[in-house]
Amino acid sequence: MRVTVIGPGAVGLLWAGRLARAGIRVNLLDHRPERAERLSAHGVLLEDQEGERRLSIPVTARAEDLAASDLALVCVKAYHTADAAQTLGRHLAPQGRALTLQNGVGNVEALVEALGPARVLGGITSEGATLLAEGHVRHAGRGQTHLGPAQGPLDDFARQVAAMLEQAGFAAQAVEGCQNLIWTKLVINVGINALTAILGVPNGRLLELASAAALMDRAEAEAEALGETLGISFLHEDMREAVREVARRTAGNISSMLQDVRARRRTEVDFINGAVERKGAELGLACPVNATLTDLVKALEQNY
Ligand code: PAF
Hints:
Strand order of the largest sheet: 5-2-1-6-7-8-11-12
Bound molecules: pantoate
Number of strands: 12
C-alpha cells in the first residue's frame, strides 16, 4: 500500500515516521513548499521507545503527487480539512481512499462530500505526539487506534489499513462504522480540551478543582444527550466516568487545545464544543455550557 500523510504536524510526522521505519512506502504532503523542501532535505527525526532515528521521507507540496496513493492519511487541523478534502477530490486516484483520525466532528463529513462515502474511513486514536521542532517528533505516549468505513460494513480495505498500522508498531483495530468511535472521542474532548485551555492546567488538574470537575461533567452531559438523540452507541456505558478516566490517565498531559493556546494558534473549538452547540441548536437541544466554553476559548484566541 502506498500512503500519503497530509500535514507535517506532530501526529502526521509520527504516522509517517513509523510507517517509513517499517518499510511502508510513504510520503508527506505539505501545503508550504519551502517547508516541504527543508523536510525533504533534512528528513524526519523520530524519537520513540526504540530510540532516535532520522528517516528520509519524500515531502512534496505538489498535490498532483497524490495520484499514486492508495491511502491519504489526513493529519491537518480540523479547520483545514475542507481544503484538504477538495485537494483530495481533485487529485486522489479513483481507487485511492482517505482516512481521518482527527479530533472533533465534521472531518468525515467533509471528506465524504469530496470523495463519496465508499472512499472514506474514519476513526480515533489516543497515540500521543509532541512536535519538538520542525520535522522532529516525539512519541509522547502509546495509545490505541480504531478505524472503520464511513458507511457500510467492515471491509478488507479497513482491515488492511489496520494491519499496516500494526506493522508500524501501533495497536490498531478495524471495526464496523466510525461515528460511534468519533462521538465517543468527541465527548472526551468536550469534557477536557476547552476547560484545560481556559484554565491553563494539565488534564488531571480538572479533577482536583471541584468547580472545574463540575463543569466538565455538565459539558459532557450535554454532548452525551446530543449523541443519544442522534442514535450514537457510545463505546463506554458510563461516559461521564470515561471522561474522568482519560483525565486521570493523561493527568500530566497538556491537551491539544491548551498547546494551541500557548502557541497562539487557532484552536479546534469549533469542531469540539462549538460543534455540540451547533448540532444541539439544529435539533432543538440547548447546550449552554458548551456554548459558553466555545465563546471563552474564542475570546482567548481574540486576545492573542
Ligand atoms: O486533544 C487532546 O489533547 C486529547 O485528545 C486528550 C484525550 C484530551 C488528551 O490530552
